[in-house]
């Protein structure tokens, strides 16, 4: 029988419970009503590097206390960021280096604010609401709009998991290991790592893999970086050989692999599962910022390595897949090729673990079942079953012979970039919902910055559409005209809203709240919140965005077939 959870966190449907409730359940019964869905999400914070008792509410005045607290909190931000440099990330960054030298490094620098802005918003959502991203969308906007967003996530995440196993098979092929051995073995290991029934053990396993990813540092220096070119390409936007539709596709893929929709769902749910509350938001923000620097540094190292692999050879501009880069590096030095293969394998494992868990968290949110790493297999069968099934099916698909693995990987990353605006819009709506975040809603400047980010993503996807339909069109002109059109439309919308708002009663300012009250404020149970009422304009805008993104995804498929010679 499916065990469903009520909005207040109590478990029903006749599920058998231990005669003696655990400490988390006792605390929940004594605490005020909250939106937390699973009692396992209440209790002590148990991180890889420390533990914070639930009743430890004292101030951290000394640097030692603050560092110990950060050590216990750190995890969701770094894991989500390093997980973003997954198999698709390694492949995409290596392709950028092999086909365009280091001329696309500037994209990474611009993506830091995108990473920080998006993930900071989910940090607040997770800590303040105690509810996963998928559940919030489903409850606040209705099941139809919930599936509008979560449906995309399930499809995209599954395709991303497939690319992780592609990375595993390519890394294994470099070492001469059959994919029929490496892929099933990795699948079993992924399930074993997750199904321990201990959040702390899972997080420690993730940090062990993150430690292996530090091999990117010696890999970077062994690639004989050209410091002058690297410094220039970080700050001066350029594209080696000039703008082209293939370059636009790759830039969108870089965006999609660096800022992917699954990250929003993963970090929010992982924060909830780790039991982080508003009191520790500043520490989780630091965790996220550190992670953003790590992911950009790793991406730059891989791009430089890809450039070194093909520099001065006939392979320049002819990327096939990540295994091809490893073999090119082997001609420069066997140790460098081996390091790249290890980095690729390690990235694939981290990515597969994070993306699959993100999907299982969302599955638990949507269907109201237990979904916590604090629970063992027997306590959360559906949660673990969904994880195991996705891993098994994705691994099986990769074993189908003859697939263009490199092109599939790049196309999936580009699809993530195309779908990111939709995920970002729902994120913005939630972060401006005063019933959900109360005193933690977005300030106006953050809304403005997020709107600019979404606009740039839409311009990139529009450029891809135009260059796919009209291959000979001038890419730079298309980008500039789309930017101008978007600015004009944006100004028209703002003006229309101001005209329509004239004569309406002024909105009362939110009541002032002390720091102590703000730190203890949590979202009430979802059932007690007033339903969201969308204006006709917003509804039309979301539907238009949906239609636009579906068309963009269709044209992405066309572009992939063109590049594949179909």
Q: Would you tell me the structural class of the helices and strands?
A: mainly alpha
The CATH superfamily is known as Amino acid/polyamine transporter I
Q: Do you know the CATH topology?
A: Amino acid/polyamine transporter I
Measure the end-to-end span: 48 Å
CATH class category label: Mainly Alpha
**Number of DSSP-assigned strands:** 2
Order of helices and strands: HEEHHHHHHHHHHHHHHHHHHHHH
Q: What is the molecular shape? A: globular
What percent of the residues sit in helical stretches (DSSP H or I)? 55-70%
Tally of structural domains: 1
Unreliable residue stretches:
1-22, 24-32
Strands ordered across the widest β-sheet: 1-2
Report strand %.
Answer: under 5%
Under the CATH scheme, the architecture is Up-down Bundle
Q: What is the residue-averaged pLDDT?
A: 82
Q: How many helices does DSSP assign?
A: 22
């Amino acid at each position: 029988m499916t065990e469903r959870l009520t909005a207040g966190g109590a478990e029903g449907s006749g599920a058998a419970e231990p005669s003696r409730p655990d400490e988390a359940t006792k605390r929940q019964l004594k605490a005020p009503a909250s939106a937390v869905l699973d009692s396992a999400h209440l209790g002590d914070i148990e991180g890889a590097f420390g533990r914070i008792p639930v009743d430890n509410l004292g101030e951290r005045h000394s640097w030692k206390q603050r560092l110990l607290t950060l050590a216990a909190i750190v995890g969701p931000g770094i894991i989500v960021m390093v997980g973003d440099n997954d198999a698709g990330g390694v492949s995409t960054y290596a392709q950028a280096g092999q086909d365009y030298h280091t001329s696309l490094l500037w994209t990474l620098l611009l993506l830091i604010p995108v990473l920080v802005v998006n993930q900071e918003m989910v940090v607040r959502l997770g800590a303040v609401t105690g509810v996963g991203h998928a559940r919030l969308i489903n409850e606040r906007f209705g099941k139809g709009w919930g599936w509008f967003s979560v449906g995309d996530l399930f499809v995209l995440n599954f395709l991303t998991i497939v690319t992780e196993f592609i990375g595993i098979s390519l890394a294994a092929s470099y070492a001469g290991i059959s994919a029929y051995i490496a892929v099933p073995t990795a699948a079993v290991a992924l399930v074993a790592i997750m199904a321990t029934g201990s959040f702390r053990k899972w997080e420690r396993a993730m940090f062990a893999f993150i430690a292996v990813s530090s091999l990117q540092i010696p890999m970077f220096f062994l690639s004989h970086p050209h410091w002058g070119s690297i410094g220039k390409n970080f700050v001066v936007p350029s594209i080696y050989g000039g703008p082209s539709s293939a370059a636009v596709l790759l830039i969108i893929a870089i965006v999609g692999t660096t800022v992917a929709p699954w990250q929003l769902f993963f970090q929010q749910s992982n924060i909830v599962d780790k039991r982080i509350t508003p009191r520790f938001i500043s520490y989780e923000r630091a965790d996220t910022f550190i992670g953003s620097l790590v992911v950009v540094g790793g991406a730059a190292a891989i791009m430089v390595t890809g450039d070194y692999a093909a520099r001065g050879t006939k392979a320049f501009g002819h990327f096939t897949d990540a295994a091809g880069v490893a073999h090119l590096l082997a001609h420069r030095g066997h140790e460098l090729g081996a390091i790249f293969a290890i980095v690729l394998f390690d990235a694939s494992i981290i990515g597969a673990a994070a993306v699959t868990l993100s999907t299982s968290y969302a599955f638990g949110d949507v269907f109201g079942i237990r979904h916590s790493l604090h629970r063992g297999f027997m306590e959360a069968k559906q949660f673990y079953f969904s994880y195991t099934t996705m891993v098994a099916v994705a691994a099986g698909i990769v074993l189908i012979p003859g697939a263009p693995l490199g092109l599939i990987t790049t196309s999936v990353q580009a699809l993530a970039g195309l779908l990111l605006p939709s995920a970002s819009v729902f994120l913005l709506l939630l972060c401006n919902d005063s019933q959900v975040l109360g005193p933690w809603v977005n300030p106006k400047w953050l809304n403005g910055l997020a709107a600019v980010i979404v606009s740039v993503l839409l311009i990139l996807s529009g450029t891809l559409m135009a260059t796919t339909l009209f291959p000979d069109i001038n890419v730079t002109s298309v980008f500039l005209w789309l930017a101008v059109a978007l600015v004009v439309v944006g100004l028209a919308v703002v003006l229309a809203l101001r005209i329509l708002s004239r004569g309406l009663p002024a909105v009362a300012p939110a009541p002032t709240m002390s720091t102590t009250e703000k730190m203890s404020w949590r979202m009430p149970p979802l059932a007690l919140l007033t339903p969201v009422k969308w204006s006709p304009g917003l509804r039309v805008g979301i539907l238009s965005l949906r239609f636009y993104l579906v068309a963009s995804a269709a044209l992405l498929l066309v572009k992939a077939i063109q590049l594949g010679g179909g």
